[in-house]
Amino acid sequence: MTALSRDGAIKTISRTMDNLPQAEFDDDQVREFVMMVFASFGVMRKQDTWAPPPTRELLDSLEDYDFDRTLLRQQTELYINYYKSMQSPQIDWLLANLMICAEVVATAKAWKHQSWLQHGRIRWRRVAFSAILFCINWGLWLGLALVINSFLGTTVFLAWVGATIVYCFNAWRVRRRNALLLADMAAVYEATRSATLSWSVIWDVLSKTRDKGAVWDSELYRLVEICISRPKI
Fold it and tell me: pTM for the complete prediction?
């Protein structure tokens, strides 16, 4: 795992620009860019370091993470197109990891991944509420099934049961597909937890998950392309 502090990011960019014949941006512009990047994630706003959490910890603590994805995309766009003299391997990694982490968190929240867990602990209130809702729904279903059987006959009743079975099977299949895709997306995140990585490999796994249905930000693809094409030092 790699960690990068706010001051560390500023120093990294400053060292990169020191190697240029003429600096395009002053210290205030560098600081503003870094501050905006670090302001894009909510979990660490009171701290000055981004240290990617382990995948399991991330997925068990989704409510702790509140990414401003619009701000993150904007800063990445500026970094790619405008702040070219600020580009360095550590900042490449920081932006890529943040964008991947933000997408994994947003997807997991949308699919209500393990919403009954927080920090690895069972949220009993949510479990109890889900259990009550489950009993109410199936109680209503059973009552309606009995009414259908009594007033509309066995044929309609069997059709109702068959339709329910098909619905439940399709819902299970969607949940299973989503769980497998989320696992693949989490694997991409895990591959970028360290700044020592192969951008070609990252491109390949991004493409594979995209083919399976994952939606990554276009800025992420462009950033990875730049990292692949950049001459090795």
Answer: 0.81
DSSP structure string for 94-108: HHHHHHHHHHHHHHH
Evaluate if residue 99 carries a pLDDT over 70. Answer: yes
Tell me the average pLDDT across 19-39.
84
User: Are the CB atoms for 87 and 79 separated by under 8 Å?
Assistant: yes
Which residues make beta-bridge pairs with 5? 49
Q: How far apart are CA 217 and CA 229, in angstroms?
A: 19
Q: If DSSP codes are grouped into helix, strand and coil, which group holds residue 3?
A: coil
Q: Phi first, then psi: what are they for 71, rounded to 5°?
A: -65, -40
Q: What's the CA gap between 16 and 197, in Å, rounded?
A: 20
Give the pLDDT score at 127.
56
Give, in order, the Cα–Cα distances in Å from 63 to each of 2, 27, 57, 76, 119.
23, 35, 12, 24, 10
Residue-wise pLDDT for 153-162, tens only, equals: 788 778 878 8
d(CA 177, CA 183): 10
Q: What token pair was written down for 202? A: 């990252």
Do 197 and 92 form a contact (C-beta atoms < 8 A)? Answer: no
